[in-house]
Design a protein that fits this description.
- This protein is an all-alpha fold and about 70 residues long.
- The chain contains two helices and no strands.
- It has helices spanning about 5-30, 35-65.
- Helices cover about 85% and strands about 0% of the residues.
- About 0% of the residues are buried.
- The chain has one domain (about 5-65).
Length: about 70
């Protein structure tokens, strides 16, 4: 299979979260897997944004204290 810039972009941006979400769908087996996956992905994004802000804040505090 030939890799294209578009496929590289998708793999690098949503590949891991989508794989994790689909694995969770398989484990949970919700009645509406599409709806459940959309909620899971939304929470994943919120968690990733929170973690990024937390790491930035922690780094800024370490620079100030140094």
């Amino acid at each position: 299979m030939n890799e294209t810039p578009e496929s590289d972009y998708l793999v690098n941006t949503i590949g891991q979260p989508l794989s994790l979400g689909i694995a969770e769908v398989c484990a949970v087996q919700p009645a509406d897997p599409i709806e459940w996956l959309s909620g899971w992905l939304y929470k994943y994004v919120e968690s990733a944004e929170w973690l990024k802000a937390y790491k930035k804040d922690k780094w800024e505090k370490s620079v100030i204290e140094a």
